[in-house]
Amino acid sequence: MADFTLNTRNEGNVVIIETSGYLNNVGGEKISKACYEAMGEGKKLFLLNLENSKVVNSIGVSILIEIIEKLQDVGGSLGYYNLAPIVEKTFNIMGLTKYSHIFQNETEALQGIEQ
Amino acid sequence: MKKKNPPKVELTIPIIHDMELAATKTAEVVAKHMGLSEEQSDEISMALIEACINAFEHSKTKNKNIEIHFVIQGETLVITVTDHGKGFDKSKVEIPNITEKLTSGVKRGWGLHLIQELMDTVEFESTEDGTTVRMTKNK
User: B69 near B83, Cβ under 8 Å?
Assistant: First the structure.
């Protein structure tokens, strides 16, 4: 499997991070670095497009919990879209959906994350 | 009449970062051979990733390898993941809770919970000579 990579872009107030590859500890750290840098610039709303990250592990997902915690401190929010069914199931089992949001696609995500 | 041995695939993987993905490739082939659904195959792969990571991280094995067996017992796939590490006491492993994890300094510790949620049965046998996780998925 190719190394984990990500691209970041802004859509208004929302930071969209598009990932590619295995979301393990390395992938999770790259996402958190991108998020914390943007939070340092005052961003509070984040969306992860996980279309090209169809395999995850619990260590990578645990790093998303760290990001959720830090976003809660500043009144921010984290959402995800284009999830593979097993990734969505994993997020549900771990309870991430209690404190962050799953959307079907980018349009729905951009509308939902700003509400 | 002599009973046939069930089909079995044996795999030994070294404790190297991301090597758990080698195990999932084998799991996909076995699941496909059995005619399991894509959803079931994905669940097996996820559980296997977690079992391998637990063995990599916690066993402290001197062997530097873990052994994985896939056995097709009729309509049931039986997977065992064995390390030769120090063992663990499952009774001391708490079921993680997202609300508690959010305020805790330790966000990790989800592996066993995920395995139990994703597979049909899960059993642990652990001694000071190592741990075997036995998990099954029914067709």
Answer: no
